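General statements about sequence and structure are easier to judge against a single worked case. For one protein, we set the task of working out the structure tokens from the amino acid sequence alone. This step matters because it turns folding into a mapping between discrete strings. The amino acid sequence and the backbone structure tokens for this protein are reproduced below.
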Amino acid sequence: MLELNDVLIRGELTTLSLMAHEGELTCLTRCGASPAASPCCWLHAIMGFEPVVAGYVSIDGEPLTPRSAFAMRRMMAFVPASLDTVGEVVSYEPPSVQDIFALKANRQLSISNGLLAEEMRKTGLTGMKAQLLAVASLLNRHILLVDRPATASLPFLRQQADAGRIVVVASNDPSVISAADNVTEID
């Protein structure tokens, strides 16, 4: 179980609490925000890239701390909305550049082209978005974090949850919100 308990991060005015369980699709959404906007900063907090000012993040009862962040990130796969190299993490420790790229592009995973192509087909997407989601899936991590998933990828994300993963998406898209088992609104 992934838990955020009264978490406050820098730049936010309200705290966030949620419990995301295995086998469920959980959506973080910002009240009244456009679909193009994303509460992705909360996904960064879950990974330990955004400092938690108050409250705590825990996985299976273990709190996320600067010392445990690296080990906990090894339980996660992150799919960004796009693959940008600028402006991702302003300041926090650890992560190293290698940590960010291992999570974002998952470049250190050696996958045969056939396996990757098959997984990309399953995502329902094309191009870089399909590749990012496919590689994150093939990492077979316990927690899958996805920023602004495409509507076409919802059946694939549901399959990931049904396989026993914790799937957390950040989206303001009404179709993504309605497909989620749990929705946490951020004021």
